[in-house]
Amino acid sequence: MEMTQIRYFLEVAESQHMTASAEKLHIAQPALSQSIRRLEKNIGVPLFESKGRNIVLTEYGKYLQSQLIPIMDQLDKLPEILRAMAKLNGETIHLNVLAASTLVTNAIIEYKTKHKGLNFQLLQNMQSEVFDIEITTKMFYQSNPGRIKNQFVCEEKIYLAVPDNEKYHNRKSISLKEVENEGFISLMGSRQFRYICDKFCHHAGILPHIIFESDNPAAVKNMIAANLGIGFWPEFTWGKLENDKVLLLEIDDPECSRDILITYNKNKTDDSNVRDFFEFLKGFCEKQRTACQAGD
């Protein structure tokens, strides 16, 4: 069945008058009659039968009409649905957040205060290439493929959070070898930051004794801040450590730092919203780093 035949059939089925339907469809009555006969021939059953001067639907015609009406209603709505999808997609920024989730969340909160109509969709999938912006990380010793277009790189030190007790009081730096017998609080092994921290320990020749681990960065931050164990603390992506009984010591052996990589993926015709947030996120990242380095 062709789309034109379907629309002609539904109009005739509604009016049950060939001439009136032809006038409404702006075609010649013989052409409409021929189209209906061709449809009946293709289907193999009669759809109309004569009743006096008018025509009425056969049982096959009634069934076909009942099946086609909801289908055509959906077809008629499709352009509007597609336009709405395009508008929503243009107002939605898809983020693949593999690192610095706390920083990204705080950036979104601040950005939304002035862009209330914009939507954000966050996922964490190392295999996904369907994103507008990806936030990931790279350690200092990993090879650098060279500067990538539309990628912002921000270096971040990794500190060690320890209790402010006699053992660590007045210390400014520490080696990981010194804490190999301490209890570590850490993210789960599936998280990039945990992988990085394990690599730091491996370079130091120690196997960390994990006393608490969680897939939730906020839970790990709170446990460390509560002085329940030691843990790695990113310089600015986790924000300020709110506990004067916990010290953040610079790790001098091995060197502990990483690069935050913010990559913009141009995959939309109108990418103005994505580009604007990308620039904002870059500035937000720099602002957080500067504030931490200034001791704020």
Task: Give the topology, please.
Blueprint: H1 3-15, H2 18-25, H3 29-43, E1 48-51, E2 54-57, H4 59-90, E3 92-97, H5 101-112, E4 119-123, E5 133-139, E6 151-163, E7 173-175, E8 183-187, H6 192-204, E9 209-214, H7 217-225, E10 231-234, E11 246-253, E12 257-264, H8 272-293
Parallel strand pairs: 3-4, 3-5, 7-11, 8-9
Antiparallel strand pairs: 1-2, 5-12, 6-10, 6-11, 6-12
Helix pairs in contact: 1-2, 1-3, 1-4, 2-3, 5-8
In short:
With 296 residues, the chain is of the alpha/beta class. The protein has helices at residues 3-15, 18-25, 29-43, 59-90, 101-112, 192-204, 217-225, 272-293, and strands spanning 48-51, 54-57, 92-97, 119-123, 133-139, 151-163, 173-175, 183-187, 209-214, 231-234, 246-253, 257-264.
The main sheet comes to: 8 strands, mixed
What portion of residues belong to β-strands?
15-25%
Number of strands: 12
Enumerate the spans where pLDDT stays under 50 for 5 or more consecutive residues: none
**Class based on secondary structure composition and strand pairing:** alpha/beta
Mean pLDDT metric? 87
- Termini Cα gap: 71 Å
**H/E element sequence:** HHHEEHEHEEEEEHEHEEEH
- Spatial shape: rod-shaped
Helix content: 40-55%
